[in-house]
């Protein structure tokens, strides 16, 4: 009798579990919460943020971006692509900031330098007049001056900054990148920020990212 009751109870629980799973999967809708921008996903799981240090929205989003990066599944990389189309500075100055960030990231100080740059522009409101201003900020944040100078001119750092520009131009030309911050998951899914609940923004963003990462797993 007990065995029969156990089987009966299990049979009741299975449909409930299926309903819960369906509800979870249907929380986010194609066209409302995300768009498909590529046929194939990237070879490795990733979340990519297109941003600008001169963007006020990106400045506000930075703590969330850093929090999300720490909570991603093992093996999933969080990448930042700095754009150069913000009118607050010349493309050359924005390219210099891209290279400075890449150098900091290579030394394990990407978040530290990103926060410092955002703070100088949006909190202290001290604009970068030239590349020496950027260099001074890097040195204050314990980036070795000689190492920095060599890296700023290196083929690898310039190549990585050029790759950022290439990705920016490609998505801009396709009218996918129309503003920042913009997140792309696995190179295939563009997140539509405006559809997320502002009262529970970070948690819902994390859930959406996890959902999209699993779609091609």
Automatic annotation (TrEMBL):
<protein>
    <recommendedName>
        <fullName>Thiol:disulfide interchange protein</fullName>
    </recommendedName>
</protein>
<dbReference type="InterPro" id="IPR001853">
    <property type="entry name" value="DSBA-like_thioredoxin_dom"/>
</dbReference>
<keyword id="KW-0732">Signal</keyword>
<feature type="domain" description="DSBA-like thioredoxin">
    <location>
        <begin position="47"/>
        <end position="194"/>
    </location>
</feature>
<keyword id="KW-1015">Disulfide bond</keyword>
<feature type="signal peptide">
    <location>
        <begin position="1"/>
        <end position="20"/>
    </location>
</feature>
<comment type="similarity">
    <text>Belongs to the thioredoxin family. DsbA subfamily.</text>
</comment>
<dbReference type="InterPro" id="IPR036249">
    <property type="entry name" value="Thioredoxin-like_sf"/>
</dbReference>
<dbReference type="Pfam" id="PF01323">
    <property type="entry name" value="DSBA"/>
</dbReference>
<dbReference type="InterPro" id="IPR023205">
    <property type="entry name" value="DsbA/DsbL"/>
</dbReference>
<keyword id="KW-0574">Periplasm</keyword>
<dbReference type="InterPro" id="IPR050824">
    <property type="entry name" value="Thiol_disulfide_DsbA"/>
</dbReference>
<keyword id="KW-0676">Redox-active center</keyword>
């Amino acid at each position: 009798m007990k065995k029969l009751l156990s089987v009966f109870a299990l049979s009741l629980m299975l449909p409930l579990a299926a309903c819960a799973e369906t509800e979870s999967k249907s929380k986010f809708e194609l066209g409302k919460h995300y768009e498909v921008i590529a046929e194939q996903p990237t070879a490795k799981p990733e979340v990519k943020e297109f941003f600008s240090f001169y963007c006020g929205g990106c400045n506000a989003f930075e703590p969330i971006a850093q929090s999300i990066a720490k909570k991603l599944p093992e093996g999933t990389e969080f990448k930042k692509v700095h754009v150069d189309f913000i009118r607050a500075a010349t493309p050359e100055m924005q390219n210099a900031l891209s290279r400075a960030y890449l150098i900091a990231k290579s030394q394990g100080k990407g978040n530290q330098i990103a926060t410092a740059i955002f703070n100088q522009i949006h909190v202290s409101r001290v604009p970068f007049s030239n590349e020496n201003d950027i260099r001074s900020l890097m040195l204050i944040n314990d980036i070795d001056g000689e190492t920095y100078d060599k890296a700023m001119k290196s083929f690898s750092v310039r190549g990585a900054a050029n790759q950022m520009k290439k990705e920016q131009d490609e998505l801009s030309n396709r009218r996918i990148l129309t503003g920042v911050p913009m997140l792309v998951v696995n190179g295939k899914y563009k997140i539509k920020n405006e559809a997320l609940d502002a009262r529970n923004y970070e948690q819902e963003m994390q859930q959406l990212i996890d959902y999209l990462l699993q779609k091609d797993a």
